[in-house]
From TrEMBL:
It comes from Pseudobacteroides cellulosolvens ATCC 35603 = DSM 2933. Involved in the biosynthesis of the iron-molybdenum cofactor (FeMo-co or M-cluster) found in the dinitrogenase enzyme of the nitrogenase complex in nitrogen-fixing microorganisms. NifB catalyzes the crucial step of radical SAM-dependent carbide insertion that occurs concomitant with the insertion of a 9th sulfur and the rearrangement/coupling of two [4Fe-4S] clusters into a [8Fe-9S-C] cluster, the precursor to the M-cluster. It comes from the Bacteria. The chain holds residues 483 to 775 of 904 of the full protein. Belongs to the NifD/NifK/NifE/NifN family. This is FeMo cofactor biosynthesis protein NifB.
């Protein structure tokens, strides 16, 4: 009815003011690093290296408690113009730390009724928490889906810990995929705007990505964000070849026929603050980096 219409309009407005979903508007977003744990192991990840000199997903100088995150938000809100989005993007997985994710968002909502809530996840627990995510007022969700073929998934994911059960190989990839797709379908059907991130890994999934894009479109994805592999030091994929910008953009163009593509991703840190091309996170750090790198 009318109420539903109004809510939909609000989500559309939020999409237009969200720097990652809008096609590059200059508004600022703030990541709160409240999610240290992860429930899967990707071969390109090494969360041991958390350094302020590095900029890639999964990196933060410090993990915050929900209380600290709210305090920081209130402080940053006074200093950063056009802060429109609060996102949780690790340094682990937002849904593997659901209690802290939930507490942080509830507390921030109580001091700011309007700010857009964004979550980024590997999707393993997406179906499990879908209704809670909606209830919390999260309108934008990013799911990283690197393969829709468990054989390829098995090359990317070393282990999946699904509600206490440790899985490996194709079984792990299959369980992860089933949850990612079910969550994507469910949230999309309820008006949540879902973006799918795909890490382009040369020789592993690069020829498979177009099929991933077609599949996630079918399940309701709003856009895909194909990103180049940034192999973390100490990770299994440490010595994998990098993708050139040309290869990346050629693939994005090819996939653009099927679904809207993101061309302006900055692969932000878990504590990123600011517009996409001006990371202010170091201005708001109060601790020196203690990482070994
Ligand atoms: Fe959301 Fe990712 Fe943008 Fe952060 S960088 S606000 S998690 S889409
Ligand atoms: Fe690392 Fe993210 Fe993969 Fe977890 S889901 S292992 S934090 S890259």
């Amino acid at each position: 009815g009318a109420k539903q219409k109004k809510e939909e309009a609000t989500i559309d407005e939020k999409t237009l003011t969200h720097p990652c979903f809008s096609g590059g508007c200059q508004n600022a977003r703030m990541h709160i690093p409240v999610a240290p744990a992860c429930n899967i192991s990707c071969n390109y990840c090494n969360r041991k290296y958390d350094c302020q000199n590095e900029s890639r997903p999964g990196v933060t100088s410090k993990v915050l408690t929900p209380e600290e995150a709210v305090e920081k938000f209130i402080y940053v809100r006074q200093k950063v113009q056009n802060l429109k989005v609060i996102g949780i993007a690790g340094p682990g997985d937002a849904l593997a730390n659901f209690d802290d994710t939930k507490k942080s968002l509830e507390m921030i909502r109580s001091v700011d009724p309007d700010i857009t809530f964004c979550l980024s996840t590997n999707g393993l627990m997406l179906m499990h928490y879908a209704d809670e995510i909606i209830r919390l007022g999260v309108t934008h969700v990013t799911i990283t889906i690197n393969a829709i073929d468990p054989k390829i998934g098995a090359l990317i994911y070393r282990e999946v810990n699904f509600m206490g059960v440790k899985l490996t190989g194709e079984k792990a990839a299959r369980v992860l995929l089933a949850n990612q797709l079910a969550g994507l379908r469910y949230l999309s059907s309820r008006g949540i705007v879902c973006k799918v991130n795909i890490v382009m890994i040369k020789g592993v999934n690069d020829n498979h990505i177009e099929s991933v894009v077609e599949k996630v479109k079918e399940y309701g994805a709003f856009m895909t964000n194909i990103m180049p592999l940034i192999p973390a030091a100490g990770s299994v994929f440490e010595n994998m070849p990098m993708t050139s910008n040309k290869e990346l953009n050629d693939l994005r163009k090819k996939c653009n026929i099927h679904l809207k593509q993101m061309y302006h991703c900055r692969q932000c840190r878990a504590d990123a603050i600011g517009a996409l091309d001006e990371d202010l996170s170091s201005e708001f750090m109060n601790d020196k980096c203690v990482a070994p790198c």
